[in-house]
Design a protein that fits this description.
7-stranded mixed beta sheet, binds 2-acetamido-2-deoxy-beta-D-glucopyranose, alpha/beta, 15 strands, about 525 residues
Length: about 525
Amino acid sequence: MPYPPATRRAILGAGAVLFVIALLSYQDSFRLDNSLTSTLTSAKNTICRVWPGQSLYEELYDDCDETIKSPFIGVADTLGNPQRCLKGSSRLRHQITPGHNWSEVEWGFVQRQCAAFEHKLSASEYLPHHIWRRPADPQTVKISSEKRTAIVLRTWDDYEYTEKRLTWLRTLITEASLQRPGKYQVFFLVNVKDPNIQLEEDDAAYDQALRQFVPEEFRDMALLFNERTLKAWYPLVQEHGAQDQMYQALQIFSQKFQQYDYIWQLEMDLRFTANVHDTLQSATAFARAQRQRNLWERNGRFYIPHLYNTYENFSAVVDAEFGDTGIWGPVQTPDFIPKGIQPPRRVNNHWGIGEEADLISFMPMIDPVGTNWVYENNIYNFEAGAGTPRRAAIVSITRSSRRLLQLISDAQLARGQWLVSEATLETFALLHGLKAVTVPHLISFSEETKMEDLLGDINKGPPHSKAGGDSPSMLYTKNGFLPGPWWEASYWFTGNGAAKIWDEYVDGKLLPPMLLHPVKEK
Ligand SMILES: *[C@@H]1O[C@H](CO)[C@@H](O)[C@H](O)[C@H]1NC(C)=O
Ligand SMILES: *[C@@H]1O[C@H](CO)[C@@H](O)[C@H](O)[C@H]1NC(C)=O
């Protein structure tokens, strides 16, 4: 089958300028700390390089600053070792490399070469345009036995690719799929706002949009869609807008790229203060280690170290509070037969330990009912309507499984069932009885925030949804924003907190592994 012209050009062009070589030994600077070795022992010790003979960059670590005076919540080591800090300068200034022009790298090609080497696959199964634009052809996709994960960056047509943003994107791809190759493949899923461009039928229009909306270096890892694409896939759903139906395009991605068992959806204004691959691996390891007993009840609240000292104690406190009355397996719905694994008949402390999570989120999964959230009543084509048991988590930065996305896709296709983006994965996971985990990563607040105020503010809901309840300051409510500590927080959906911390990090402050969002630097 002929490949679209853009892809063909990418292959030929890239062959001329790029090398990918693999070293068979780890350098000292790439040694992993103990918390990660168990998750990575099966990975081969290779590093893929963009330029021959040159290291991608040396990761420089140092002892972390002991000066985080701000109050914080979360478990300090869920995203990696909090004593070992990756210097911002080593990551973000490495691109000043005389004799090389980073705009000429073709990042999709480099990643595919690297993955093909790792997984002993032919490069042809990786041509993303080919898979995206044509009906799925099972012959072309070889599903390797190893679980693989895609990272999908959600971008849009007029996103401004400034130098700072380009630097970050190159760093992200390098860390996620070249310095620790094999596990992650990074894609751009590009929302084209003009609904009239016939992206599906018209090769020339697709190609032109690709050239217009995506910098050359990312074109062979970018996939375009518009509302027209989504309407054709999901005609029974009344909503196809990017904000409220963010997962439709991801559902389609998952159907087409079946070789990925899991998909991280990352936003363009997310920044990591530690190696991207290692951070995601740590979050995944935390989720895998969680037991199902009272998991939804833990997911519904913030973990506050000041109160509990350890996450184990927090779990024990929640267990003591709920006993065997927590959610166990799928929550009843008249809408469909749950597809998760049936839970053991007796509640026990072991079920779920070591199992991969179908959903990972970085904010609590709360019960939207009674929150006064602006989307509280947005649920469509479910038999019980607003009476349907639901969960929601703000910030659509998640990892979802192919299985979960498939179930959502099926429900949208067959019955047009939908909720807004923040409640989609969470509610379907709840109703199907799939493992969903809130990773309690470190979130800091402004130094002026008093611990007592914080405690009184963020966990004041009912026991099953403590981070929720009536009008939590975390949400945008029907009465607008409410006073609270979030505007200066390191992770939320708006405010300046994350951007300030990122600036300090870039200027040399040594910070433990954190996710910062939103950082809208230009
Ligand atoms: C780097 O390559 C890009 C794309 O080919 C080109 O536009 C730019 O002028 C080059 N920069 C330098 C400094 O050569
Ligand atoms: C566990 O958490 C409870 C509730 O906050 C607290 O009272 C107790 O001191 C903690 N126990 C330990 C061992 O930290």
